[in-house]
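re the bet — no i am not wrong, look at it urself. input seq straight from the record:
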Amino acid sequence: MTTNHTNLVHGGREDLRRLGVHALPVDLSTTYPLAGLESGTACLDVLVEGQASADNPVYARLLNPTVQRFEQSLASVEAAQAAVAFSSGMAALTACILALRERGSHIVAVRPVYGTSDHLLDSGLLGNEVRWVRASEVGDAIRPDTAMVMIETPANPTLTLIDIEAVVRQAGDVPVLVDSTFATPILQQPLRHGAAMVLHSATKFLGGHGDVIGGVVACSDEIARCLRRVRVATGALLHPWAAYLLHRSMPTLKLRVERAQSVATVLARRLAADPRVDKVHWPGFNDFPGAELLGHQMRGPGSVLAFEMPGGHTCAARLIESVRLMTPAVSLGSVDTLIQHPAALTHRVMDESERADCGINPGLIRLSVGLEEPDDLWADLDQALTAATSTTRVA
């Protein structure tokens, strides 16, 4: 399983030579002059029905050329027929749920997933019903009105790994949506393992610099048409400037992911050997559940890890407040290292008992490792661990 590095550099840029430019163009138009009323009407009709392009975009909510370039780039590295970009990862998930409503309103999902994804599914805000199951129970939960199966692997925040092919077999003809944000297309390409849709919070690794919010779904042409129809109706199109920033970041994605993964390897091993830490969750350990998927489903363990502090919430809070180099903030996949407390932040919207059932306990800390020198990061963690586990809090 490989990702074509050349596609990362050239995807969505194939016509730049013809245009006579080297840098990506940005189209900020909200509306487009029409050559004639009949041709404009024809373009409007096909775009409203979910077609990927038209001779004239008519209006930016229907189509934007800069967004389209990013979509072409992402599709090429995910080995997908198409990709559809949205204003955020949650907008992308919302569109997936709405686009498949013709199949039914029942969704089968496996925890853990990102906390707000969990909340959206569980709330029924979109008129759906969700059945939460273990990965091995997906087949038994399928009903005639099941619209899709959703999994996240590696899962947020425990890094739980799920065998995509095993879930796809259980799902039968029900489409499987995989949130692959943690892995990126560099480490995992779910469509190659039978998934119907791959969801990315593009805000994370795809953007990679903490300066853009977006979401994108890679899928078949058929599903893409349904997603575009939802996007046209709901106005959830990715902003062209965000699309430009995401597309600009694609050529360095492999370099960033692999560098961060190498730094995370050092930190994970040092944390696992440290008596001040109870447990480390990271797919790179041989005894990590599902580690056998590395080399088949995944090309590497990634750069996000989690670890448990012995003193619960109080100790975890002290550690996060004591870091000086790392950034105490939600999100992940940036060039700098981010540290946060899932139970209090990203997964707070979940019921406490549901968090506990997923292993999201009060002492769990999530670390998104960046591109810094590992020794510098470890020095910061080391002093923070000392401050957090001492009997007297360090100011």
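see?? The longest helix spans residues 253-272. told u. also The CA atoms of residues 157 and 391 lie 28 Å apart. so pay up
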